[in-house]
Amino acid sequence: MAPVRFLEGKQVYLRPIELADADWYFANLYDKDTRRLTGTQKHFSREQIAKYIEGKSQDSSSVLLLIATCDGDIPIGDIAIQDIDTINRNANIRIAINSGSHQGKGYGTEALRLMLDYGFGILNLHRIELNVFSFNERAVHVYEKVGFKREGVQREALFYDHKYYDSILMSILESEYRSGDIS
Questions:
Q1: Which domain holds residue 13?
Q2: What CATH number does residue 151 fall under?
Q3: Residue 102, class by beta-carbon neighbours within 10 Å (0-12 exposed, 13-18 middle, 19+ buried)?
Q4: Phi/psi at 28 (nearest 5 deg)?
Q5: Predicted local distance difference test score (pLDDT) of residue 181
Q6: N-acetyltransferase domain spans which residues (predicted)?
């Protein structure tokens, strides 16, 4: 059976993550670069990952989707809108493109745009925010390219590999997204 293409772009599509993806998710969670870029410090078992995926499917305050290539249906990462606040119409977004071979090809930019369109156009959000670590300059560039603005810095918020790093808070408003003033 062909995978469901929930949100589709030219290079990637987003689909619901399933229990069948647990082994893939587990393996990618232990990729050294992915762990560093996301600040992941804890260890998880396959069973914990399966429970996490199952729990996310029941969680109305988040939308967790797998990112796959349109050409070949290859899973390359995941993206989530989470902590959805329906009263204030805001949420945060996170994304991970796994493996250096999938980075720098525009996949993350397209996935972000698909998810922002969903967040503002379907979920009726007003503000979407994210945090990115100061050493992840490539991600900062992508977020700014998509239209996110820097709001502040949480100084030395991450302790990773014997060092402290700043966390940059960024956001995009619905009006900024809709104005088309996005590179």
A1: 7-178
A2: 3.40.630.30
A3: middle
A4: -70, -25
A5: 58
A6: 12-175
